[in-house]
Amino acid sequence: MARVRCVTEMGMGVDVHGRDATKAAKRAVSDAIRHSSLGFVRLYGKTPHDMFVDVTIGVPNPEAVDTSAVAKELPYGTVTVKAVKGGLEIPSADGGDAITIANAAVIVSLDDGK
Fold this sequence. Notes:
single chain, alpha+beta, CATH 3.30.1330.20, five-stranded mixed beta sheet, 2 helices
């Protein structure tokens, strides 16, 4: 089986208070997938459930991301999520809170049948 990359989408999500990396990551994935409607899979005799969806989340604290919760943002396919160092944290003026920004790359592939 060889996977053929069909779609690459990017998104950004923000948790304004609380430094919640998972919340920001889920919002980034939601942002990314709202840019596309993937009806083309039927052209290849596939269904949305045949898709492979690989998600990379960039956040300042990747160990804080609940990748299972992020995966639930994707309605179809075999989903894998990994969190890596990235994104951005903007501290508040008093240093007591921060804005956490997550970036998401969502890659959709199909098995080419070979």
